[in-house]
UniProtKB/TrEMBL annotation:
Xref: InterPro entries: ATPase_BadF (IPR002731), ATPase_NBD (IPR043129), Euk-type_GlcNAc_Kinase (IPR052519)
Superkingdom of origin: Bacteria
One matching Pfam family: BcrAD_BadFG
Segments passing through the bilayer: none
UniProt cross-references to SUPFAM superfamilies, sorted A to Z: Actin-like ATPase domain
Protein name: ATPase BadF/BadG/BcrA/BcrD type domain-containing protein
Domain ATPase BadF/BadG/BcrA/BcrD type: start-end pairs: 7-137
Native source organism of the sequence: Paenibacillus selenitireducens
Amino acid sequence: MERDVVIGIDGGGTSTRVMICDLKGNELAYAEGGCASKYKDENASDHVKATIEDALAKAGRVATDVAMLVAGIAGYESEADDAWIIPFTDLPGLHCPKLHLNDSDIAHAGALQNRPGIIAIAGTGTMIMGINEYGRRIRNSDYHQYAYSAARHLAYDAVYEVLAGLRDDSNEGLITEMLQYLQVSSLEQLQELARQGFHPDTMKRNQLFGQFAPQVTRAAEQGSSVARRVCNRAAEQLRLGIELVGSNFAQRNVEVALIGSVICSPYMSGKLTELLMANPIKQYRVVETQLQPVVGAILLAYKELGIPTNKR
């Protein structure tokens, strides 16, 4: 049977997205599944495989129809990770060429459609990655710089600020939501819960806090001094990471695409754009993300097969 479809996979810290397209650029199926990060979910590999099977079923196709698979998986850094990443896409009959990448690689391919530029990701996780005009790939982590701007970071910091007493009347709404969310009735009880470490399981604790981030970014927009301090610190770290990566570009004008629930929230995106515009050396231009990461994986699959994508 002719191998006439490609599979693109966006495996993030929250969910797995799988798209199947034919070789002419037509979408045949799309499916979503559970978390794809082995560092956040011990069943990550099963989630990815189940989502691939779901997409194939929706497309009315079988594994032997697949000509190329590209998977961007959170936590994958290099070929040294092949030992754990290969089983993620190891399905019966799925013996086509496979390209495993970090999820930031497919995000860049989708957001900027392989143009030089920078993507800044802040959602479940955080990452800043650029590809300059010479095709060189640079990440903020290459410098051992980490922007503490993921969802859980904002929530932890907001709770710490409140517990430290750095609050005023502008924070009443945020504190009320915080107490309700963490199922305590007073700041004293919150203090006791914090002293006990909130939750004994690190993964579940991070998931718990990560889900509170939307309340923090919304409170910042509404004027909470605590939420604004937390968001401003995160924006400053993102700004520094973007400018570190940007220092590798020869051109003065650099496009920046924002990806993720935290960085795309109104307050965070506005604050970060303001900080980047103040740079005296380069002109950073925040642009709309053109295509979703899973589509970026499809574009890279076509590229691997030598299929032009400029008209797709």
